[in-house]
Design a protein that fits this description.
Length: about 280
């Protein structure tokens, strides 16, 4: 057994937020937002309505929580280049999604815009953020990306937003980890916990790609924190994943035809949640 003694134990953030373990979180992939390459000038109300309808389908299918993510803004900017238009649009969108669905909501600003995500969460009353690179550094599709845990935790405290939890990827997808190649998965996991993450996330190599069972188990054995799986989850593997992990973050396999750029398919969500009910 790998030692977990790197930080004081705390109450599970999943229990605090959801009053349960084995949590299912559906991701709302927004349409391209103002300022992004694929934005064609659609009215703001159309963008907001799309996100709200995606959230309603997830909620109707029985998921426990939602994450709003600017996935339509490909290619993603590095954190310091993310504009005010993204923050303001997502704050308004998040507020509407939360009000219309009544679900616990998280924010993920791509790429790695943790500071922006905290501001949005505070403005919209969201309960958590997802951060793809919380500690250390890696070479991402966007270029060199550093973890901003020290800056973000101070900003969160300054905003009086310490109730906003941080869900942090451990071995983040869409990038190369040569910079930290001398640090093992257990060490990277403990780094995230030591730098005050509340939940750690295991992922595959890219969107829709599954984390290996070995990696999930290694992360779980290396931390006191709850562990979620953040990519590649589907109805076929959910039983195996939840036998180890405390929750999942899911999108692609619940979309029409199982592809991320399509809308959420209520039938797929309902069937998936029925299977979840059989295993949790």
């Amino acid at each position: 057994m790998i030692s977990k003694s790197v930080y004081r134990p705390r109450q599970s953030a999943l229990e605090t937020l959801f009053n349960r373990n084995k949590v299912i979180i559906g991701v709302i992939h927004s349409k391209p937002l103002p300022g992004s390459p694929e934005y064609e000038g659609e009215p703001m109300e159309d963008l907001i309505d799309y996100a709200v309808e995606e959230g309603r389908r997830y909620a109707a299918g029985g998921v426990d929580a939602l994450i709003l993510e600017n996935h339509g803004d490909i290619p993603f900017l590095r954190p310091n280049d993310i504009g005010q238009e993204t923050a303001t649009t997502m704050a308004v969108m998040a507020d509407r999604v939360k009000r219309e669905t009544g679900h616990t909501l998280g924010i993920n600003v791509l790429g790695n815009g943790a500071l922006t995500a905290i501001a949005i969460a505070k403005a919209a009353g969201a309960s958590f953020i997802r951060v793809n690179q919380w500690t250390n550094a890696y070479v991402a599709n966007e270029g060199f990306v550093e973890g901003d845990a020290a800056k973000v935790t101070r900003y969160r405290s300054w905003l009086r937003a310490k109730d906003v939890k941080v869900f942090a990827d451990v071995h983040v997808k869409h990038g190369a980890h040569a910079i930290v190649a001398d640090r093992s998965i257990p060490e990277l996991t403990r780094d995230a916990e030591f730098f005050d993450a509340d939940v750690v996330i295991a992922t595959g190599q890219r969107t829709g790609n599954a984390a290996t069972s070995e990696e999930i188990k290694t992360i779980k054995e290396s931390t006191h924190l709850p562990v979620c799986v953040g990519s590649g989850v589907n109805i076929e593997n959910i039983g195996d994943i939840l036998s180890v992990a405390d929750g999942v973050i899911i999108a692609s396999s619940l979309k029409r035809d199982g592809v991320w750029w399509n809308e959420v398919d209520l039938d797929r969500v309902s069937m998936f949640m029925k299977e979840v009910g059989n295993v949790r």
